[in-house]
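Lecture notes, unit on protein representations.

Consider one protein chain, 145 amino acids long.
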Amino acid sequence: MKKNCEFCALVEKGSDLEVYQDDEVMAVLASEGTGPGHIKLFTKEHFTIFEHVPDFEAGNIFTVANKLSTAAFEALGKQGTNIIVTNGVAAGQKHAHFLVNIIPRDEGDGLNFDWAPKQLSEEEMSTVELKLKEHTEGIGKFVKE
């Protein structure tokens, strides 16, 4: 638990808006969400960004996100969901606690997550590819609890 963290406080005190909880995560309706059914799913342990979440907990949080997305489809009659992680300030992260937003969607709901694709040169693509390959060697080694 971290002092002054609103999500750690929710874990400690509970919430009337809670929709799910297990040993590792908690999910609450977003009081200031994008619309009805917007869920914030977060780790009970304080992790600032996704890279700090242990592998075994990362797997659980996305399994739960999938189930909550299914619940939004079925219980709320939605046509889609966005499952979004804003990871780091540059990505728009507003709270220093890792969380996943599950946003129920309807066609024409006015939410816009479109972005303009950028065409990179072959040289830029090659440079990025090489840098990423250097840093991704060894991925796939699942770290158990």
